[in-house]
Amino acid sequence: MAVTVTRLAPSPTGHLHLGHAWSFLCTWALARTHGWSIRLRLEDLDASRASAEARLDALWCLQWLGVDWDGEPELQSGHLDRHRQAMHALAARGLIFEAPHSRAQVRAAAIVPPGPSEANAPNEGDAVLRFPASLRPPPGDAWSFRTQACNHRFACPAGDRTIHDELHGDRTLDPSMVWGDPLVWMKSGGPSYQLAVVVDDLASGVTDVVRGEDLLDSAILQSVLIDALGGTRPRWWHLPLVVDQDDRRLAKRHDALSLRSLSAAGASAGRVRRLMLHWCRGAELSGETTPGELAAAVTPDALRSLVARQARLRVTPDIVRWTCHGS
């Protein structure tokens, strides 16, 4: 019998917040209700920001919320060998090339403005630029993976690609029009987010990816990389985002809304879970919710209903006050 596998993949670069709690609790609830295995991967490739303190904080937050997983946690940085193997596999198919160009050179050559926010690819800089085909090198040695201390890009084929998301339905776009030739290896000597997440999910046998809808379009690019590596695409579940009162997606800059800060201010894990139940099912903000109660309530149909209503999961001062004080 095939095993269904999902994963929790916090990035230990700061304190986790209520948006992370929503994503991880939904992942955990779907997995435990449907008998999926859960892997825990700490995505620590951003050496300039990742820290041992943040790793411990991520583990504490998950345990505090009542989220468990199967097997030992793994560090993404411990698997650079398989990322290199994937690069060699892409090179053997003539799909990657050296790209030593500076960001200024890419901007100067680009016909269109910069692409999507780097929130979708946290290891690649301040903004993802659409890499123009005019900067692809001619056939030759540059189409290889021999110099690891150099940026490398994936020659993204043009044309619409479609994926199916379990909550949003079909999604179609041309990834070459969004990313151009996306970065897959960085001159610092490691993979980009887009390559690493694909390679690590394939290596772990992940069949179901549950995460925020800000990564929905990235799933299309990742499907192209999966196909190029000969892998099997997972089922995707892209959740509605948690935003602040000004409709901005929560980020680690919102330290006052971190789980660590909320706990220090009096929040209980039971009230945080009750807030998740409120967002998912409209439950009254009263009392506390156990992990089992939440797992029973977070169903695919309930999440599809949220997406259909284009629900915004807002963190307002009143919600913070209730989470910390119960009133």
List the keywords:
Glutamyl-tRNA Synthetase, domain 3; single chain; Rossmann fold; three-stranded parallel beta sheet; 327 residues; 12 helices; alpha/beta; 38% helix; 2 domains; 13 strands
Please report the number of helical segments. 12
CATH structural class of the largest domain: Alpha Beta
Number of strands: 13
- How far the N terminus sits from the C terminus, by CA atoms, comes to 48 Å
Mean pLDDT, nearest integer?
91
Query: How many domain modules?
Result: 2
Radius of gyration, taken over Cα atoms and rounded to an integer in Å: 20 Å
Secondary structure blueprint with pairings:
Elements: E1 5-8, H1 18-34, E2 37-42, H2 52-65, E3 74-75, H3 80-92, E4 96-98, H4 103-109, E5 152-154, E6 161-165, E7 169-173, H5 175-178, E8 183-186, E9 190-191, H6 193-203, E10 208-212, H7 216-228, E11 235-239, E12 242-244, H8 259-264, H9 269-281, H10 291-297, H11 300-308, E13 313-315, H12 317-325
Parallel strand pairs: 1-2, 2-3, 10-11, 12-13
Antiparallel strand pairs: 4-5, 5-8, 6-7, 8-9
